Amino acid sequence: MQKRNIIKQCPSCGTDLTITKLTCKNCMLELSGEFSTSDSFEGVSDEQKDFIRLFLKYEGNLSKMQDLPGENYLSVKNKLNGINRVIGNNEDNEMRDIFKREDQKVTKIIKEKLKSNGGKGTMSMLKGEDMDIYLSADNEGVIASGYPILTMKWGMFEEIVKKASLLGGNMLRGDAGSQAGAKIGSEDLPLDSIDAFVSMKYFNRQKGETTTRRSTYFAAVLDWAGIATNCRSRGQGGYIELEPDFLDYGKE
Predict the structure, then answer these.
(1) Alpha carbons 252 and 250: distance in angstroms, whole number
(2) CA 205 to CA 210: how far, in whole Å?
């Protein structure tokens, strides 16, 4: 006999059905009464069940799942959060361990703003388009939808703001130079620009080498968080300008 899924609601009036009889197929023992059909997963849809199967197949590796056709990090996280809500897990589960005792001011501000928006946000780029940002899977930084392979680590933001403070509050992005293939330390990509500074400090690039454009994303996040203003070029390239509360950042 073909097994069928349990019907949960009455097809006539829609009221929840109750199981009143259980039968052992081996010895034909019958038990009568009222038996609950409810469990934590009863509200999980077929689509969510398919997601759970994939989640188990990839052993919970979100990085692998976001590479599947039609998926990205944000869509995977949203589906996972949706399942957590259905089965009764804490909706703030993914946010509870985001803060650390050693977090510094810049990190705390970015984390607080992400937390208030459920772990994501929308920042404005200078060209006018909006871009989604969200917590990395390991909660160690920020990812922008326009550059999903780059995790902007908390320490990177801290060091950029400290460097900008040492430079008097303004720091060139260096994006035009890095995009054009300029060499680190050249006139078009000075050592004190964000792209040169971050590349040498975190990405093993050396003076005289080219590097990838990353500064536009760092600058946009800092602007979104209210830590710095992302400014257009005034003849020497685009730059960030620290807000007054951060002009002496790291000098204490």
Answers:
(1) 6
(2) 8
Give me 236's structure tokens. 């020497």
pLDDT, tens digit, for every residue of 120-161? 889 999 888 899 998 887 788 999 988 888 999 999 999 999
Q: How far apart are CA 211 and CA 189, in angstroms?
A: 10
The span from the CA of 108 to the CA of 157, in Å, is: 11
**Cβ(168)–Cβ(177) under 8 Å?**
no
Work out the burial of residue 120: count CB atoms within 10 Å of its CB; fewer than 13 is exposed, 13-18 middle, 19 or more buried.
middle
DSSP string, 23-37: E-TTT--EEEEEE--
- Name the strand (E) or helix (H) holding 143: strand 141-144
- Dihedral, 162, 166, 168, 174 alpha carbons, nearest 10: -70
pTM (2 d.p.): 0.67
H-helix or E-strand spanning residue 131: strand 130-135
Our CA dihedral for 132, 133, 135, 136, rounded to 10 degrees, sits at 90
Taking every pair of Cα atoms in the chain, the longest distance, rounded to a whole number of angstroms, is 88
User: For the chain, percent helix, then strand, then coil, each to nearest 5?
Assistant: 35, 20, 45
Q: Could you state, in order of their start, the residue ranges of all structural domains in the chain?
A: 46-95, 105-246
- Contact between 73 and 148 under an 8 Å Cβ cutoff? The reply is yes
**Rounded CA gap, 9 and 21, in Å?**
17
